[in-house]
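Morning. Coffee machine broken again, so started the prediction first thing and wrote up yesterday's gels while waiting. Chain of 363 residues, entered below exactly as on the submission form.
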Amino acid sequence: MSVLQLRSLTSVERDAVAAAQKAADHKALLAIKHMAERHIEIEGKAGTALWLFYLPDFTHLFKDWYSQYIEQVRAIYDTTASGEIVFDREYLLLKYRGRRPRNVVGAWLRDGSYHVLEQLTARASEAETVCNAEISRVEALHRRQCELPLADMVAAVSHFAGFGLDHAFPFELFSQRFPQINSTELFTSPISSWDLLYQRALDAAEQVFVNERSYGEAVRSYADHTSYLRWGDICSREDDISYARMMVSHALQTFPNFASLWRYRQEQRDARRISRASQCHAVRTSVSPLRKIERGDHRLFRELSRFAAISQRYNEMRRILFTRTLRLLRDVCETYEQDWRTTSLAELTRTTASPKSFANERR
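Came back before lunch.
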């Protein structure tokens, strides 16, 4: 890529980007099949950072959307911040000047402004509700072949994504104040995209066993309603069907009849009950982490624990809702005979209603 397109880059920054490109293992990054980022710290440039993404197979829709996402991050965490983006056929480069979300959250907690963090998570929860409603509304209108308010949906999804709670946890503060506690124990979530992918494959197999659907119908339903959970960008309909066929076939091969599938699911339910009981017993009999912490730090630890759990769930929901939206845009492109691989977000939303404004949201 020509990093000279970002005129604000210094010679030191250009050299750092070039070195990161040279060191990149492209094969390994592609194997991950999601946005592979390289965070570049510039020595002596506090408040300025570069992110380099290798996205050769990502669509223009995603890259266009990234600009809106960065604008929402800025609006939510630091209105004085600025971001510049440039991309070519392979790389996307972001230069961000300002306080990072984790630094903002860390400052709130150091000041004891716990109510501000509570307000942030409440706003993120409200944004998720609006985001889900907008996606469902456009899906319903698309099924009825009505005019689509795509700009409203894009604005809502961008706003929800902008909270970035999974990137806002202040690890530096946690390690400073609670070095005796393993932070990974805090990050739990009742939602797992990979578990959903597997459980819905079992649902599809069950439908085939009870003659509710044929194998082909079960595969198509999985492709339409579940396959999107696995990626962070758009995949073709053929890729979705291929993945669905693999997952449903694997479930049918693993469980050759309904009885074996039923026994497995019953064992899983029993295991979850036993696990919950064991966890309750462990909580009653184990030494509370608070006993390792000075009394004056109990409130801070509880707030960090709460935020860690919320941010982990947020991470799953943001990915689920974002990839669901991208799949919907693919279907809209096909309906309007546009190439979803090359069309821009502006082209796709040009004839739709103006987006709702989130810019004046109270902080």
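The chain has three domains: 3-99, 102-181+293-349, 193-283. Going to sketch it on the whiteboard this afternoon.
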